[in-house]
Amino acid sequence: MKVKIKKYMAIFTAACLFLMTGCGNGTINGYVEETFSGADLAMDTVISASFTSKEGLDPKETFDKIVDNCKKLDENVLSRYVEDSEISRINLSAGSKEGYALSEKTEEYISKCLEISKATDGTFDITLGAVIDLWDIEGAIKEDTEFRVPADDEIKAALDKCGYEKVKINDHKIYIPEGMILDLGAVGKGIFLDEITPIKQEISRGTLTAGGSVYCMGQKPTGEAWVIGIKNPFDTSESMINVSVSPDSVVSTSGDYERYIESDGIRYHHIIDRNTGYPAGGGLSSVTVIMPCGNGLVSDALSTAVFILGEGSAQELADKYGAQIIMITTDGDIIKTN
Ligand code: ADP
Ligand code: MG
Fold this sequence. Notes:
Blueprint: E1 3-5, H1 8-18, E2 22-28, E3 31-42, E4 45-53, H2 59-78, H3 86-92, E5 100-101, H4 104-119, H5 129-135, H6 137-141, H7 152-159, E6 168-170, E7 173-175, H8 188-195, H9 197-200, E8 203-210, E9 213-217, E10 226-232, E11 235-245, E12 249-255, E13 260-263, E14 266-269, E15 284-292, H10 296-309, H11 314-321, E16 324-329, E17 334-336
Antiparallel strand pairs: 1-13, 2-3, 3-4, 4-8, 5-7, 6-7, 8-9, 9-12, 10-11, 12-15, 13-14, 15-16, 16-17
């Protein structure tokens, strides 16, 4: 089998070029003022920021706090690859009668995810860990494992362990069935942006980016809207469209062009369709969801869900959640909700 691997290293090489911090008269999104820019790695992704601090504050200290917050959130709560994180401990409790006593925040995150699962008929589903592990696209991208397409019976067995409707939360305890693995990979960056609110008080305006999720903080001195470029899924070195974004918004993009591997001419990416157990194909290459800040988890979840469901699902979800959704189809057409 011929396997072409999109090098994970490329992301890190690109990231390393940005792994420097600086201050000066910079241009943020079309205006010039004293700005700080920095980038670092956390949550298995690039965290980058470009902002103006409130007077008298050291922007580097603010940025370091932001990155530190991200690392702690990942290590203590969200990562299922850190043994002692809350998600790992929940996964370890699978099948137990005692369940797992949730922290207030984690109960909030998981409950919100389950609510979005309901609203998307189970398309967005944080219980797909067993299927995600079976494909192990991330492992193959990192060249830790050799990629192979799982057999039908393996997929079926893994799917049997999944299903958001099997998760029970009662009296702040969570109960998941044996074999189930929670995976919050789709919403981690959005949760991080939601949790940054207290530190954001130190910033006048700017942008904070975590992988495919961006927080547009404050507004330009001119009062104009932020402008965000949506990557061209067919040539990721350039952007395909620029969209205007209101002050204090979050923008999340999901696509099939960032984390995938190609085998025998077929692209296998990291977003799973629960109905088939295969990487999803809803006719879209990229989905961008824009919402008011504080909704990073929701916008992240919706970008994943709409990517799977296709363009027909977008308007209803946009209306329900007060979001704006911009899609790029696999044919390169651009579709926007009202
Ligand atoms: P990114 O990780 O690049 O932000 P997404 O936000 O679209 O991309 O999330 C993809 C990740 O979400 C996968 O790596 C996996 O951990 C998880 N995932 C895959 N399929 C689903 C799904 N149907 N519902 C919820 N999470 C999913
Ligand atoms: Mg996401």
